[in-house]
């Protein structure tokens, strides 16, 4: 009845809201628990789905704006003419075509800070527009006369001060480069082709002066959604061309996979954390609502006696849960958008997409979907309140029904265990449903800890395996790039001999990186030639398929480099330098590679075969130094520079951004879900205490001390934590073994079993205690509160 004597029936919305608001204020602990778990779940869900969408959406948008080429095809100009290529492209299925463009490989020794050097794949184009590959000219102008060149590079971020889209032109515009035996080229502009169709562009007339040996065609097909469709369309275009006319073809799907690799590596981890958080939310909400129904029987009866319909009673409990759920989801969505920003910056750095953010649709879907899941989780226990009659609810009381769990409790009472322990072990059997929900929450917490621990171990081992095992890097000063440092007069063998004689030197590996044009690819490739103590650098241990080098005509390559170019172990590649082409066979695939951009590894003996005309300068060599244990790194680098001021030495210590991001993510998410799990246990003990106030008063009246009461309540949760921990460890291990290969595959990296089998007996022992530790931590505070209950007050209220 209301104050005016009218029943609440017919005033449903206002009455339900007032009752639900009062319940939220009365059950502050449950409200906080639900809000926190939904905040965590929403944040991880937004980050996971946001990165999943962002892994392809920016590329698709930019590719559509540029009318990117589905296939960049390179033909041998000696075997097929431009007219033949144009005629072959006039067929159904070819949506648009650009070309033929003559292309040549130039050895351009560009001088000055920031200028690229080595072989450049130069294409002759009259303008940056066209039906395919509309190049983004972001600085300067397009070449219009002989001696002018535009370089392909990603535009700087819009907020970069000084030059680029937000300011003036970059310093490289206006610089010159001398081509051996050719003209002096002036850089007149900077442009960006998302499809990586060339390193640089000149006028069609200028490229003919470079004696081009190949022709480029750019195709857009009406059906290009998969590799099979692209291969079929390309085969139809080339079927009437001379045999072996096609040198190579690059699909845009390889570029797209490369773009998606960085954000894609985080998605599986975030998905697992998000799913764990969502399941934890369901379990905790069901536990909270069922506990509220059980402990609020009298309140339910009063509501029905006042005229609340069964539907209104149900709505009260659903609204009570929805209020903290909506608030938690809203805050979690904001937190997820903020947390995703550094991950997106790491993932899309240097790709030229501009600012990449979370799609608004992801935030909307999370805000609408998560509360719905919570309401569905609360529906089953709340329906119990709907079915109760007023008389049944008022007379039910809050104590467990007689006989529930008594058989187990009596058996435990007959053991030699301390009374507080035996009573504590029997408590979970009084409320089996609540026990299952609480143990499941602990299981998820231990699963998260196990999964995150395995993830951290894998990432750390990967970083250790791919850092080259070198403590110090040494390189001679480049006389053409620095006028501030002295130049070393020592030759390569003399520098190596000097480094080996310095105190603290343990191993020395010499790395020479030479750029080659890879026939069929618009991007040059840096081949790393190795000599010295190569066996100690860990490259052999990183081989995941095939074998290590055995001859000068062989290379091994990192997984990332192979994936970007669609190559595999057993393929033969053609490298070009100084107008000379050589072939090499890929005999092995490694997890990582030499320092710098990913590229093939070759034996030192291959230099004479692949680049016989190259004049070696001492500044081109990188000396990777392994120090003896206990050597002071700063003192060693100072000793190198003191021995020869022309040598630059630096500390290779430190951690890369991916390792920091992955480990930080695992730690933060583990702490969040660990806290949520502890709060779930906290809530369970509070409910048990409220239901057993009379029992606790009786026990204290017959001599049980506060310390024994605390031990009893903590023991009841410790056993659940132990069982949840033992079950959560194998679940976490299985999740780790399933997710790590998916994540590494998304990053185009294959990992050996040594990076997946990270579990050792001491680590498993610590994890086995995690569940008990979480449960005991969550139970301690309410257990101590129960121990302080005054006997007279409890028995008087009863």
According to DSSP, the number of beta strands is 20
Task: Report the major sheet.
Answer: 10 strands, mixed
Mean pLDDT: 79
Identify the overall geometry: elongated
Low-confidence stretches: 1-10, 159-167, 397-403
Percentage of residues in DSSP E strands: 15-25%
How much helix is in the residues? 40-55%
Span between termini:
27 Å
Rg calc: 34 Å
Give the structural class. Answer: alpha+beta
Write a compact overview of the structure shown.
The chain is of the alpha+beta class. Helices cover 51% and strands 17% of the residues.
Structure write-up:
- This protein is of the alpha+beta class.
- Helices cover 51% and strands 17% of the residues.
- The strands form two sheets. Strands 1, 2, 3, 4, 5, 6, 7, 8, 9 and 10 form a ten-stranded mixed sheet that branches.
- The longest helix is centred in the middle third of the chain and has 44 residues, at 252-295.
- The chain is elongated.
- The model is unreliable at 1-10, 159-167 and 397-403 (pLDDT under 50).
Write the layout of secondary structure elements.
Elements: H1 12-26, H2 28-54, H3 57-65, E1 71-76, H4 82-89, E2 94-107, E3 119-124, E4 136-140, E5 148-152, E6 176-178, E7 184-192, E8 200-202, H5 204-208, E9 214-221, H6 227-238, E10 246-251, H7 252-295, H8 297-305, H9 310-347, H10 360-387, H11 390-396, H12 406-413, H13 419-426, H14 432-466, E11 472-476, H15 492-501, E12 505-518, E13 524-532, E14 543-546, E15 554-558, H16 559-565, E16 572-577, E17 580-590, E18 601-603, H17 607-610, E19 621-627, H18 633-643, E20 647-651, H19 657-691, H20 693-701, H21 706-746, H22 761-787, H23 791-797
């Amino acid at each position: 009845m209301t104050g005016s004597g009218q029943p609440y029936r017919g005033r449903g919305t206002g009455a339900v809201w007032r009752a639900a608001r009062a319940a939220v204020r009365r059950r502050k602990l449950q409200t906080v628990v639900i809000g926190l778990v939904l905040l965590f779940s929403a944040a991880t869900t937004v980050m996971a789905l946001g990165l999943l969408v962002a892994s392809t959406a920016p590329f698709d948008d930019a590719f559509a704006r540029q009318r990117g080429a589905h296939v960049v095809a390179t033909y041998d100009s000696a075997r097929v003419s431009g007219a033949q290529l144009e005629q072959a492209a006039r067929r159904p299925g070819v949506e648009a075509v650009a070309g033929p463009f003559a292309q040549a490989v130039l050895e351009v020794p560009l001088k000055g800070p920031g200028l690229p050097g080595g072989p450049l794949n130069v294409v002759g184009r009259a303008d940056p527009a066209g039906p395919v590959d509309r190049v983004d000219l972001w600085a300067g102008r397009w070449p219009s006369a002989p001696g002018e060149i535009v370089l392909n590079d990603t535009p700087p971020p819009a907020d970069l001060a000084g030059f680029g889209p937000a300011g003036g032109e970059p310093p490289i515009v206006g610089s010159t480069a001398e081509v051996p035996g050719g003209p002096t080229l002036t850089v007149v502009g900077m442009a960006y082709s998302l499809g990586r169709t060339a390193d640089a562009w000149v006028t069609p007339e200028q490229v003919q002066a470079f004696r081009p040996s190949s022709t480029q065609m750019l195709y857009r097909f009406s059906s290009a959604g998969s590799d099979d469709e692209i291969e079929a369309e390309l085969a139809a275009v080339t079927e009437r061309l001379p045999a072996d006319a096609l040198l190579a073809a690059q699909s845009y799907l390889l570029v797209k996979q490369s773009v998606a690799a960085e954000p894609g590596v985080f998605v599986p981890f975030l998905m697992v954390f998000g799913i764990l958080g969502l399941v934890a939310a369901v379990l905790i909400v069901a536990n909270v609502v069922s506990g509220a129904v059980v402990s609020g029987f009298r309140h339910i009866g009063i509501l029905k006696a006042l005229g609340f319909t069964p539907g209104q009673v149900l709505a009260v409990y659903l609204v009570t849960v929805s209020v903290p759920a909506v608030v938690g989801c809203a805050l979690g969505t904001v937190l997820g958008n903020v947390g995703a920003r550094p991950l997106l910056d790491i993932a899309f750095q240097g790709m030229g997409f501009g600012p990449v953010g979370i799609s608004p649709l992801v935030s909307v879907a999370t805000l609408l979907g998560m509360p719905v899941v919570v309401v569905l989780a609360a529906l089953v226990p709340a329906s119990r309140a709907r079915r109760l009659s007023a008389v049944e609810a008022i007379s039910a009381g809050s104590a467990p029904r007689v006989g529930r769990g008594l058989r187990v409790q009596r058996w435990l009472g007959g053991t030699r265990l301390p009374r507080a322990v035996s009573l504590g072990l029997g408590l979970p059997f009084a409320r089996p449903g609540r026990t299952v929900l609480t143990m499941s929450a602990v299981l998820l917490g231990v699963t998260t800890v196990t999964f995150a621990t395995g993830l951290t171990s894998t990432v750390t081992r990967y970083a250790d395996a791919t850092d080259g095992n070198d403590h110090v890097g040494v390189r001679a000063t480049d006389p053409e790039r620095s006028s501030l440092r002295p130049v070393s007069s020592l030759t390569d063998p003399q520098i190596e001999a000097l480094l080996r004689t310095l105190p603290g030197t343990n191993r020395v590996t010499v790395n020479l990186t030479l750029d080659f044009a890879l026939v069929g690819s618009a991007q040059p490739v840096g081949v790393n030639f190795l000599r010295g103590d190569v066996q100690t650098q860990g490259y052999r241990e990183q081989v995941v398929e095939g074998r290590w080098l055995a001859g000068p005509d062989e290379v091994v390559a990192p997984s990332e480099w192979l994936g970007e170019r669609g190559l595999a172990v057993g393929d033969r590649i053609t490298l070009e330098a100084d107008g000379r082409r050589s072939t090499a066979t890929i005999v092995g695939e490694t997890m990582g590679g030499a320092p710098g951009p990913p590229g093939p590894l070759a034996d030192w003996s291959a230099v004479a075969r692949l680049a016989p005309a190259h004049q070696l300068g001492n500044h081109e060599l990188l000396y990777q130094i392994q120090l003896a244990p206990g050597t002071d790194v700063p003192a060693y680098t100072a000793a190198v520079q003191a021995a020869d001021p022309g040598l630059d030495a630096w500390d290779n210590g430190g951690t890369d951004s991916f390792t920091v991001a992955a480990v930080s993510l695992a730690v933060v998410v583990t702490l969040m879900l660990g806290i949520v799990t502890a709060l779930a246990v906290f809530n369970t003990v509070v409910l048990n205490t409220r239901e057993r106030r009379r029992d606790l008063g009786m026990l204290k009246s017959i001599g049980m001390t506060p310390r024994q009461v605390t031990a009893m309540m903590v023991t009841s949760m410790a056993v659940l934590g132990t069982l949840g921990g033992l079950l959560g460890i194998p679940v976490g291990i299985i999740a780790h073994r399933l997710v790590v290969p998916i994540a590494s595959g998304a990053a185009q990296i294959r990992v050996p079993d040594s990076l997946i089998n990270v579990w050792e007996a001491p680590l498993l022992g610590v994890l086995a205690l995690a569940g008990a530790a979480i449960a005991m931590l969550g139970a301690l505070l309410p257990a101590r509160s129960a121990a302080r209950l005054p006997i007279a007050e409890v028995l008087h209220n009863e």
